[in-house]
Amino acid sequence: MDCVVEVIEKVASNDRISFEDALILLTKADTLTLADLADKRRQALHPEPVVTFVVDRNINYTNVCVSGCLFCAFYCPPGHPDAYVISKAALKQKIEETLKLGGTQILLQGGMHPFLDLDFYLDLLQYIKDNFTIHIHGFSPPEIAFLSNKASLSIKDTINQLVGAGLDSIPGGGAEILADEIRKKISPNKCTAGQWLEVMKTAHNCGLKTTATMMFGHIEKPEHIIEHLIKIRDLQDETGGFTAFIPWTFQPDNTRLNTQKATAVEYLRVLALSRLVLNNIPNIQASWVTQGDKIAQTALAFGANDLGSTMIEENVVAAAGIKFRLPKEEMVRLIQDAGYKAFQRDCFYNKIKEL
Q: Which residue of 12, 103, 205, 263 sits 20 to 30 Å from the alpha carbon of 330, by its own alpha carbon?
């Protein structure tokens, strides 16, 4: 265990840890030691006893997708009886409800729809901005890569057109594990790890802020988790465009990927490691959507400083049989019971008000 002690001392000295260091921590360190290290790093970055969250809604503009990811229980192939593209009337109602509930943003995501062209997306964004004052956090890198290829445009030109129509920031979805040997097995038709990173780099260079995610607990190995974290850290060194990192566990129910569900302890260990590796990303978000309220609350002692979104609506994880709901009042209670002040924030992690 001497190697573990050496890495712990490195972390305690606030030195950046290497791939090998991270692998030692993930595979050999005691869980409570990981928690203590991550919590101290969190406190160094966020000295005030504050936990934040955003009030928003996930709006899936379509469920049609040709990616065929084995882990997705939400998508429908073209022509399926349950396939849909959102109407403007339905979109209007969802945004109006969001604003009435104090929401400040919408998360706009769909699938790789083969029959929607760039004009559809531009019109959708313009309609929202013409009728509402709300932040649009939209279109994950696989959607943007697919759309740019379909429109025969560069990633930069595609992003600039979307921004011109009203896109304000980009969510970190579709990252899964940024290791192509894993991606080829679980999402063979989706963009490569390099393409995902290229979209994010281009977005950052265009002035957009984004988040980054990681879906683990399926067929990856510890080395793949570390590879993912290091790639995110390297890009953040280059651009500084990531506002937050959100690791979450694969939910196997109703999917075509037959694997045992990751445990809460496995989730908390990876969360803590994320806080330790990603010393250049300010915020780590707990995933109550996949873990439930009690583990999300526990995550606040494992390096997380944010509880994500109230998610007035969420469909993708719900399609995998996960039905956790967390109203704003309950989120505030969980934060306060853990000994923190609860603040509503915006997409850029600016505090709006204490609750």
A: 263
